[in-house]
Amino acid sequence: FLGCFIPVPITFVYGVRTVACLPSVGQLLKWSALLFPRDQTMPLISVIIPTYNREKFVGKAIDSVLRQGFAGFEVIIIDDGSTDGTRKILEAYGTKISCMFQENSGVSSARNAGIRVAQGMWVAFLDSDDEWTKDYLACQLAQIKAYPEAVAHIANAVTVLPSGERSSLFVETGLADRFKEKSCLAFERPL
């Protein structure tokens, strides 16, 4: 699954009219400084990890998030009715993560449940059998700051097979050839 950042819409009420907008990163940072003084903690990013029967993998996914050099995030795990030892693995993390448990409803339902409780200004998704590099969030934030008009950010996914062989999602789907030398793409509005 691609790493993906989506800004949380902020709703403003003007008289009887409600307007929803996606603020720029600059606006978000200014607002967060005003609304949430340093002694209060509000994450910039909510990392949502849906899981189902992944006791062998979920710990590595969580550890890869907790290793990030950037600290302004919360980790939300939604256990979608696991019947293996996943819950025991999650409980070992204590207060480092927030866990929700639901009846098995599918990965989309689990992601949506995570979004509903997310407190961050941006939402990042990570599948429970995937891992992030230690600078993943810092790189994504650099792109968010560089392209504040963008409404979403995605990153390439590299698959490492047990043999050590690597494959790139961008290469497999033709995106690497299509955009050649570009390290990122920015869209000013949804496609």
Short synopsis of the structure:
It contains seven helices and ten strands. It is of the alpha/beta class and 191 residues long.
Describe the structure.
The structure is a single chain. The chain is built from 7 helices and 10 strands. β2 and β3 form a beta hairpin. The protein has 191 residues and is an alpha/beta fold. Strands 6-5-4-7-1-8 form a 6-stranded mixed beta sheet, with helices on both faces. It has helices spanning 25-35, 58-66, 86-91, 107-117, 136-146, 169-172, 175-179; strands at 3-7, 10-14, 17-21, 45-51, 73-79, 98-101, 122-125, 153-155, 158-160, 166-168. The longest helix is centred in the N-terminal third of the chain and has 11 residues, at 25-35. Residues 1-25 and 27-40 have low confidence and may be disordered. The two termini are 20 Å apart.
Question: How would the blueprint of this fold be written?
Answer:
Elements lengths: L2 E5 L2 E5 L2 E5 L3 H11 L9 E7 L6 H9 L6 E7 L6 H6 L6 E4 L5 H11 L4 E4 L10 H11 L6 E3 L2 E3 L5 E3 H4 L2 H5 L12
Parallel strand pairs: 4-5, 4-7, 5-6
Antiparallel strand pairs: 1-7, 1-8, 2-3, 9-10
- Total strands: the figure is 10
Oligomer: single chain
Encode the helix/strand succession as letters.
EEEHEHEHEHEHEEEHH
The largest beta-sheet arranges its strands as 6-5-4-7-1-8
Q: Termini separation (Å)?
A: 20 Å
Uncertain residue segments: 1-25, 27-40
Radius of gyration: 18 Å
Major sheet description: 6 strands, mixed
Shape: globular
Structural class: alpha/beta
Quote the average pLDDT: 78
Q: Which percent range fits the helix content? A: 25-40%
